[in-house]
């Protein structure tokens, strides 16, 4: 399988499967001499870690990261940084009954017809388990951004259509679902549990802000900053849409409503989401990431097997009732 690498000057390659021995990444493009705070990297993984509450999968993984190369005496050496996270709580037997059928909403069908075979245990490479490696790589990127005084933050702005009316990023880590609005958090939690108790799932939206963006990042036309961001976000399992700034709403506005006026202090509004012509304008970068409902549900569904025979899919296992919650950390 190709295309497991993201980035150019700073890039990372991930490896591993949901029920394999381990998952991990190799990060390249890190300059020498960067302080590598292993406790910080682990704290980022802990935010995404499964099995922490009723709003996430019951799969218990420690997600303890081990740095294998590229760091000496606490600093980067300028060579590739390899990190590994060993899987600890696989229950592959839960998937024996689906090894020859295509689970609706999953990549089983497309992986089978593209590669001729698939790892049916938890989805294999297509599982969101892979995103733990992205968080580890992202933590290294954050250490670099910290030195440049650039801050990335995220939170949940909608669950199943229940939308936040205000955004408070300071409260996110105190919320079990990383909710941005305390006034709708209870309703959002209730929606998740209601779907879970009905053996179903529900979608949601994560909001990502980047503060301290310098002007001039991105290239015109074929390497636009917003295009790169959309590529990164759409590469996350379960993401079906991305908005920059006003996003889809801009199609309903007039130019006089959508344009950001400028005065001597800078932009008076931020409908553009911090990007104009594919290049950062120095304002806060705003990005909404739309996650579909978790396809792994415990409701009987119609499907076919690898021979084309019609049958009923009845899943077992442990699954997130709302992938947007932990997905918000991945997007960040």
Automatic annotation (TrEMBL):
Keywords: Amino-acid biosynthesis, Aromatic amino acid biosynthesis, Lyase
Pathway per the UniProt entry: Metabolic intermediate biosynthesis; chorismate biosynthesis; chorismate from D-erythrose 4-phosphate and phosphoenolpyruvate: step 7/7
SUPFAM superfamilies linked to this entry: Chorismate synthase, AroC
InterPro entries (UniProt xref): Chorismate_synth, Chorismate_synth_AroC_sf, Chorismate_synthase_CS
PROSITE patterns xref list: CHORISMATE_SYNTHASE_1 (PS00787), CHORISMATE_SYNTHASE_2 (PS00788)
Catalytic activity: 5-O-(1-carboxyvinyl)-3-phosphoshikimate = chorismate + phosphate
Pfam families: Chorismate_synt
Highest taxon listed in the record's lineage: Bacteria
Cofactor binding note from Swiss-Prot or TrEMBL: Reduced FMN (FMNH(2)).
Enzyme Commission code: 4.2.3.5
GO molecular function: chorismate synthase activity; FMN binding
Cofactor(s) listed: FMNH2
Family per similarity comment: Belongs to the chorismate synthase family.
Protein name: Chorismate synthase
Organism for this UniProt entry: Sulfurospirillum cavolei
Lineage: Bacteria, Pseudomonadati, Campylobacterota, Epsilonproteobacteria, Campylobacterales
């Amino acid at each position: 399988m190709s295309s497991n690498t993201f980035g150019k000057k700073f890039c990372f390659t991930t490896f591993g499967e949901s029920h394999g021995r381990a998952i991990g990444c190799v990060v390249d493009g890190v300059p020498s001499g960067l302080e590598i705070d292993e406790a910080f990297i682990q704290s980022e993984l802990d935010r995404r870690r499964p099995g922490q509450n009723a709003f996430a999968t019951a799969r218990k993984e420690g997600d303890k990261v081990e740095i294998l190369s590229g760091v000496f005496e606490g600093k980067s050496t300028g060579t590739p940084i390899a990190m590994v996270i060993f899987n600890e709580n696989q229950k592959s037997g839960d998937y024996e009954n689906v090894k020859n059928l295509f689970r609706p909403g999953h990549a089983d069908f497309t992986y089978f017809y593209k590669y001729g075979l698939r790892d049916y245990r938890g989805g294999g490479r297509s599982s969101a388990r892979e995103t733990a490696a992205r968080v580890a790589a992202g933590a290294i990127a954050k250490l670099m951004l910290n030195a440049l005084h650039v801050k990335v933050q995220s939170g949940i702005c909608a669950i199943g259509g229940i939308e936040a009316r205000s955004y408070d990023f300071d409260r996110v880590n105190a919320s079990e679902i990383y909710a941005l609005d305390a006034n709708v958090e209870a309703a959002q939690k209730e929606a998740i549990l209601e779907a879970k108790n009905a053996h179903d799932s529900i979608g949601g939206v994560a909001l990502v802000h980047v503060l301290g963006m310098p002007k001039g990042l991105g290239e015109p036309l074929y390497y636009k900053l917003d295009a790169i961001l959309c590529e990164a976000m759409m590469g996350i399992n379960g993401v079906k849409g991305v908005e920059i700034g006003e996003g889809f709403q801009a199609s309903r506005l007039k130019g006089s409503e959508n344009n950001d006026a400028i005065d001597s202090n800078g932009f008076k509004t931020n409908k553009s989401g911090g990007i104009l012509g594919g290049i950062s304008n120095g304002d806060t970068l705003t990005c909404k990431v739309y996650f579909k409902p978790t396809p792994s549900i415990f409701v009987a569904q119609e499907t076919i097997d690898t021979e084309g025979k019609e049958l009923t899919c009845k899943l077992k296992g442990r699954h997130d009732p709302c992938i947007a919650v932990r997905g918000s950390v991945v997007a960040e």
